[in-house]
Design goal:
With 177 residues, this protein is an all-beta fold. The protein has no helices and 16 strands. Strands 1-2-3-4 form a 4-stranded antiparallel sheet, with no helix packed on it.
Length: 177
């Protein structure tokens, strides 16, 4: 639901299009360049949705990962991450560790937490996190799902993940989740 465009009211020749990355033109659309770092560095989260201009060079950018602010026209961005919310698709209890919870978050990956520290969630895998499953007997084997039905597999308790596509036709149709 992105792909909106915004015009800097302090400089009407500066136009932005929001998408996975933020694109900018200063030539009324003749030439476009990316404003800010590419999405996969997570310096500015992917999926830009809206912008507010506070002055010519100070803007607030809304993304799937929260709000970001620039005071120098987009050369540098600050994460305004003091917003205590995340959209979760599913939460799973780890049957091998008392008080360990894993959750799939909308465009914020698969995360894990323990009940004693509910405000700190560790990112285990990126993308859109959907569901997590634990092997019933082996506490080192964890599966997680990400966008387009992609399944990932860990044999080290979630410290790293590999593709899990044995026997699955990758060209077959899939649901987002």
């Amino acid at each position: 639901y992105f792909a909106k465009f915004r015009i800097n009211p302090y400089d009407p020749s500066q136009i932005f299009i929001m998408g996975v990355d933020l694109w900018e033109t200063n030539s009324e659309g003749s030439d476009w360049e990316m404003n800010g770092p590419v999405w996969w560095t997570y310096e500015v989260h992917a999926d830009k949705h809206d912008m507010v201009f506070l002055d010519e060079d100070t803007w607030i950018l809304a993304t799937d990962g929260g709000l970001y602010k620039t005071t120098d026209g987009g050369s540098n961005w600050t994460d305004l991450e003091d917003i205590p919310n995340t959209q979760l698709y599913r939460v799973e209890v780890n049957p091998h560790e008392v008080g360990s919870y894993w959750a799939g978050a909308q465009d914020n990956g698969t995360m894990a937490n323990d009940f004693g520290n509910s405000s700190e969630w560790a990112r285990k895998f990126g993308g859109d996190g959907f569901q997590t499953r634990f092997h019933p007997e082996n506490n080192n084997i964890v599966f997680c799902e990400t966008q387009r039905g992609q399944i990932r597999y860990s044999n080290n308790g979630g410290n790293s993940f590999d593709d899990y596509v044995m026997g699955i036709d990758e060209e077959d149709r899939t649901n987002w989740d």
